[in-house]
Write a structure and sequence with these properties.
Layout lengths: L9 E5 L5 H17 L13 H10 L1 E7 L2 E9 L3 H4 L6 E9 L8 H15 L4 E7 L3 H9 L3 E11 L2 E12 L22
Parallel strand pairs: 4-5
Antiparallel strand pairs: 1-2, 2-3, 3-4, 5-7, 6-7
Helix pairs in contact: 1-2
């Protein structure tokens, strides 16, 4: 949980089974929002169901951001992503499905979610955050680059849920490992990671 009252009144927590319907709604709403803005090659409503998020929770993490008791956003955090990155040493966390509810979230919430994911990755001792972005979505690629991510490659023909394979830009950001201020030791797994 994020107890910092200055973070846009957002509170972060791990998603649970009780959040599955809200995650599907959030993803579908984000897909509809993209479509209304002419982004047609990325997400489609109905593509992912509760089982998708249940599987991610079993092998990675799903995080929720809440504002005023309502879900304002979410993201998935994976500890490996061979489909996009191939076999890699365990130095990175992989952010997927960064989503905000535009009816609840204030402007800038997406950046706060990214920052929270970066803090979580650092808290478990990894030094890099990676993500992939649809290569054809120039606006989203620029968004991540403006958030400090650098392009490190491209993945052609990545399989997609319920659709044809697509090409993705691979981006990463080096992060500082968080330490205890008093000892300089790394923070343990499960430490409250959203203190900024």
């Amino acid at each position: 949980m994020c107890d910092d009252p200055w973070v846009n009144d957002l509170r972060f927590r791990s998603a649970t089974e009780a959040d599955l319907a809200a995650l599907v709604r959030l993803r579908d709403d984000a897909a509809r929002w993209m479509l209304t803005r002419g982004v047609t090659g990325q997400w489609r409503p109905g593509e992912l169901d509760e089982d998708h998020f249940r599987r991610v929770m079993a092998h990675g993490e799903v995080w929720l951001a809440e504002a005023g008791g309502r879900v304002a956003g979410a993201w998935e955090l994976w500890w490996a992503d061979e489909a996009a990155w191939g076999p890699q040493p365990p130095v990175a966390g992989y952010v997927h499905r960064l989503m905000v509810d535009r009816g609840v979230a204030e402007p800038g919430t997406g950046r706060l979610l990214l920052r929270a994911a970066e803090h979580r990755v650092a808290a478990v001792g990894r030094t890099c955050v990676r993500l992939d972005c649809l290569a054809a979505n120039a606006q989203l690629n620029a968004y991540y680059q403006n958030a400090g991510y650098r392009v490190v490659g491209r993945k052609e023909g990545k399989p997609q849920p319920g659709g044809a394979p697509k090409s993705f830009t691979l981006l990463e950001k080096e992060i500082q490992q968080r330490t205890r201020a008093d000892t300089g030791e790394p923070l343990p797994h499960g430490h409250r990671v959203h203190q900024w």
